[in-house]
Amino acid sequence: QIGAGVSLPGVVAAKCGAEVTLSDSEELPQCLRNCRRSCLMNDLPHVPVIGLTWGRVSPELLSLAPVDLILGSDVFFDPEDFEDILTTVYFLLEKNPHAQFWTTYQVRSADWSIEALLCKWKLKNIHVPLHSFSADKEHLAGSPLPGRHTIEMMIISLARSDGT
Fold first, then answer.
1. Among candidates 100, 70, 90, 99, which has minimal Cα distance to 3?
2. How far is it, in rounded angstroms, from Cα 79 to Cα 156?
3. C-alpha–C-alpha distance, residues 51 and 31, integer Å
4. 3-class secondary-structure state, position 50
5. Is the peptide bond before 144 cis (omega within 30 degrees of 0)?
6. Using one digit for the tens of pLDDT, what is the confidence trace for 2-23?
7. For the CA atoms of the chain, what is the radius of gyration?
8. Residues 69-90: tens digit of each pLDDT
9. Which Pfam families does the entry mention (predicted)?
10. Burial 66-79 (b: 16+ CB within 10 A, else e)
């Protein structure tokens, strides 16, 4: 999981039996400590937590084990980070061509889009309709989230040479 924050998606995946590596920015040690705490509180002391900064090639990024799935929960928050995120994702997908990046995206402004960056990095996007898993309601599980926000889920992978 990239941009793990408190690592809920990664912890859930690990509890379901997935082999998980959690990451957040090496420049945010508190986030990395929160990831480790989440793992310990959920009886997952074996889950590795590493510092990866988007857009930066580091020894930790280069030495990552092969992956099938990359999770990103609300990583597309600040448009200044969009290209760095996709640079890192592109690197991981090039290293693991069969892998996919599953992410959510809250539309915060009509002026912010990742479409041009996906094209630039030769990535394709499959939109996952929220209604396909009953997540298109204004209130979910008794929570006011997502409310009236526009949330999108997408699966990003390498585009083939023909652009598909």
1. 70
2. 18
3. 9
4. strand
5. no
6. 888 888 999 999 999 999 999 9
7. 16
8. 999 987 888 889 999 999 999 9
9. Methyltransf_16
10. ebeebbbbebbeee
In sequence order, the β-bridge partners of residue 94 are none
Strand, helix or coil for residue 10: helix
DSSP-assigned states of every residue in 83-138 = HHHHHHHHHHHHHSTT-EEEEEEEE--TT--SHHHHHHTTEEEEEE-GGGGT--SS
Residue with tokens 């630039």: 120
Q: How far apart are CA 36 and CA 32, in angstroms?
A: 6
CA of 100: how far to CAs of 14, 30, 125, 131, in Å? 18, 28, 10, 21
Helix (H, G, I), strand (E, B) or coil at 88: helix
pLDDT at residue 148 greater than cutoff 60: no
Instruction: Give the pLDDT confidence of 103-145 residue by residue, as tens digits.
Output: 987 777 667 778 889 999 999 999 887 778 777 666 665 666 5
Q: How far is CA 128 from CA 19, 36, 57, 72, 102, in A?
A: 24, 30, 30, 14, 10
Distance CA 127, CA 131 (A): 12
90 near 123, Cβ under 8 Å? yes
